Amino acid sequence: MTEQTPLRKSSLISDQEAENITRVEELAYEIKVQEVMTPNPITMTASMKMQEVLEQFRVARISGAPIVEEGQLIGIISIEDLIRCLIKSDLEAEIQKYMTRNPFTVKGDDPVVEALKMFVSTKVGRLPVVNKEGLLIGILTKGDITRGLLKALQQDYQTEEVRRYRASHLFEDIESERTSLILRYNIKAGDFTHGGEASSKIKRALSRMGASPQIARRCGIATYEAEMNLIIHTTEGGVIRVEIEPHQISIDVYDSGPGIKDVELAMKPGYSTASEKVRELGFGAGMGLVNISRCVDIMKLESVWGKGTRLRMKIFLKKEDTVGEGHAAKSLEEKR
Amino acid sequence: MNLEQIIQSLDLKLLTEQKPFHEIQPTTGYAADLLSCVMTGASRGGLWVTLQAHSNIVAVAALLELSAIIITEGAQPDEATIQKANDEGVTLLSSQQDTYRVVGRLWELGIR
Ligand SMILES: Nc1ncnc2c1ncn2[C@@H]1O[C@H](COP(=O)(O)OP(=O)(O)O)[C@@H](O)[C@H]1O
Ligand SMILES: [Mg+2]
């Protein structure tokens, strides 16, 4: 995967790029594992010889295979296992001597993002895919995910080059962030037509990751108010960045102006500088920041007049509300 | 009381796509034209009565998962708003009556 993609080392991301990453991340929630996996993979049985593994890997050009017994997955054999065996010149041994038992698995109807997180946390190269009954239905590599996402992006984008670049970035992002997932949206000033779209997407992503309806609603309301403030009150628009971690959701909303003269006053219920025209649309009740403070656990509003505004919010997740990585970890525990 | 009965009793005009309204049971409602108030006040699955007819009401209803918006005094949302509502699965209903009267009728019907 890496050879075909120019790896970016810079951590600075332009707004245009950020928008594209967001689309790939969204797809990672929308697409299911079974849509991108390789179905009916070559399988082996525990009593076969390692010699046969060597031959199969060579002929089929694969680097790993699930070990099954009556359709049930019992292990996995990889090229690394084969190398260990080769070092000892032990090709006559049975697979069961070298295979990894009870391997990590993903479910066919899990969203791709779950598999991505599993790849990051377990560092394995391939994941067997099982159905609800635990029967093997396919195998998944990171390459499968990239190809699947690229295929889905084909409707969105024109050139092959750009598509590759964008999909590759997702992996970099997810691998570097490890336990968290970041959603980023650029909001244009005065763009009432798309008002509320970013917050809807954030809410939907949270629900898909298994957040409780209450948490999704609180997060939806807080981001909606912040999003509308960017649309109504800023000169250049701004950015909403949401980081989802197992224990908390951090929302960061920032813009480059005009800033707020008196932050304390802005926080007062009913205070608004919205124009008459905007008020006619039902905005400018001066309740947005108050609403936000009710929905989040921590809220920090900082502003420099003439420079910009930064609003940071956190929602803490109790054990039962855990989302994302925690969600995956839970299903891992069940398997062990 | 399901949404189909409410539509009939209040003689509401359906602006968006048909749905199995008899399966939708709005338990409560909220009336306001200020979006921030709706954001805090309206309950999931409830009805929202408003004079606003612009596209932003759709985002609010979608986010709060409201059962329908009743737009009062015959205010007419534009085509793009109706399209957006259909895309988001939000039901838009229209009444010629004002908000006061619509809410009064809903209250009589037991939506409290
Ligand atoms: N990002 C921002 N940039 C500049 N001013 C802001 C920003 N966010 C909020 N404000 C100021 O704070 C006031 C109160 O905000 P809010 O409580 O959301 O009420 P409303 O948006 O209805 O006016 C706004 O009227 C505006 O003057
Ligand atoms: Mg506001």
TrEMBL record, chain B:
This is DRTGG domain-containing protein. Pfam families: DRTGG (PF07085). Residues 55-106 form the DRTGG domain. SUPFAM superfamilies: HprK N-terminal domain-like. It comes from the Bacteria. InterPro entries: DRTGG, Ser_kin/Pase_Hpr-like_N_sf. It comes from Bellilinea caldifistulae. Coiled coil: none annotated.
